[in-house]
């Protein structure tokens, strides 16, 4: 049986290169998998309750860890030749020297021993220290993530409690709006109550806790590399701003809503004598153009006068009158100008400066 020959320098170098590559690849992969693969992420974030919040933190941690763990291959690549030389020195100094057959067809034990040599070099020790530093940094990130999530939960709960009474009033306003919308000819009353409903909408925006939480999350994503106190402040700020806005929004909504009952009564008093469906239809079209300001202008005048004025917009003369009215009072006109135009429309022969009036030679009703 032939005696195995000692490995040549070329064989030793090849084995050293293979050992360094195997060790750096496996060590870098293990580091990355600990912090970016699903099992590792779930284990790291076990203190965050399962569900949307853990999923959110999983994405944040994965993005943060991807940047950190990438430092290992970036640092290892330019030092592979140096590590190979150090492993080669160890192999050359071994007595007895490894055989060519051992290195040509290495067993699992030989491969493990060679990888151990790579880890024990000066370069291997530097890379091991780097991996440990990355682990520590990411463990610190996870610990802070748990604290930040607890802070966020507390802030959201406090804001929810603060919003409770206002949310109840908003719900009552929603129910009121639904009742109006289900009634006959709702557009006039909806326009008349639009200031109160607009105040309701502003209050709803102020108590949109989901939006506040999303804003805090965006701030945390942007500041994932920042110091912990800065991240705490970034998370807290949207909730604190929202909490400060609750009082003014509540006051504005309450003031607008307190006048709603009287507004509805005035509205019904104004239109209660209108038994002309055509006039009511035109009042709705009028309100669609001029909105709440148009309704105020109507209420500045006698309801009989207004009914007679808008009734003229129907039929043979209506097209010319409506064109003249709209030219004189475009959308967005001030209240007094609309009032003056309605007064002019009520006259026997209305004329609108620069806008025409009177009877066209022919043409369909604008209602058609």
Quickly list its features.
0% strand; 77% helix; 368 residues; mainly alpha; disordered C terminus
Strand and helix order? HHHHHHHHHHHHHHHHH
Put simply, the count of helices is 17
How does the overall form come out from the CA principal axes? rod-shaped
Low-confidence stretches: 356-368
Quick one: biggest sheet?
Answer: none
Please state roughly what percent of the residues sit in beta strands, choosing from under 5%, 5-15%, 15-25%, 25-35%, 35-45% or over 45%.
under 5%
Can you describe this structure?
By secondary structure, this protein is an all-alpha fold. Helix content is 77%, strand content 0%. The radius of gyration is 39 Å and the shape is rod-shaped. The N and C termini lie far apart (111 Å).
Write the layout of secondary structure elements.
Layout: H1 9-36, H2 38-44, H3 52-69, H4 71-76, H5 80-93, H6 100-104, H7 108-120, H8 122-182, H9 186-192, H10 194-206, H11 209-222, H12 228-258, H13 260-271, H14 277-299, H15 303-311, H16 318-328, H17 335-345
What's this entry about, in short?
This protein has 368 residues and is mainly α.
